[in-house]
Amino acid sequence: MTRKKKTTRPLPPTKPHNSDVRTREYLTATEIKVLKEAAAKAPQNGFRDKWLISVIYAHALRVSEATDLRWDQVDFAKARIHINRLKNGDPSVHHLEGEELRALRQLRRDHPESDFIFNSQRQGPLSARQVHTIVARAGKAAGIKFPVHPHQLRHSKGFQLTGRGVDLRVIQGYFGHKAIQHTVLYTKLDSRKYKGLGRD
């Protein structure tokens, strides 16, 4: 009796470590600016794409927090937005800046029937996959030398706020972190504490 030869199936490709793909997990202020500009020039939905990136960055959103944003979270009269956090994070109410408020009004006019702020061409909410595609495409168009993903926008806001000297407890509340050790991560790249150390 001859045994059947076992066929081995090829293993699926493994996801590379972030450090193998990019040297850092945040964007600089200049990179954020060119990313928004590149998104705005997308042949379709450029306005939406720019403000998707802008809102994710401004409010340090995770992808699912962005795709779940609904109009009943926005108070146009008081220029505020209620942010629901995932991962057992604490919700908070954020201020909306003037340009951002005007952009949200435009998005509302573009999709008057939708409950969601960011919509696909099929008039439904964007999927997490679509958000990843939009951000990655804008990163390429902006000429950023490494692959860009949405969570980098959240990290970028954390580093920006610590660099501006914002109190850690304020950042903790803004990000919805339950424990402050998650917020402390953003102090690691605050160069102010090293100022002058390279002098003779």
Provide a descriptive summary of the structure in words.
This protein is mainly alpha-helical and 200 residues long. The protein has a single domain (24-188), classed as hpI Integrase, Chain A. The protein contains nine helices and three strands. It has helices at 18-21, 29-40, 46-58, 63-67, 98-110, 128-141, 151-163, 168-175, 181-184; strands at residues 74-75, 80-83, 92-95.
Topology (SSEs and partners):
Layout (H helix, E strand, L loop, with lengths): L17 H4 L7 H12 L5 H13 L4 H5 L6 E2 L4 E4 L8 E4 L2 H13 L17 H14 L9 H13 L4 H8 L5 H4 L16
Antiparallel strand pairs: 1-2, 2-3
Helix pairs in contact: 2-3, 2-6, 3-5, 3-7
Features:
200 residues; globular; 9 helices; mainly alpha; hpI Integrase, Chain A; 3-stranded antiparallel β-sheet
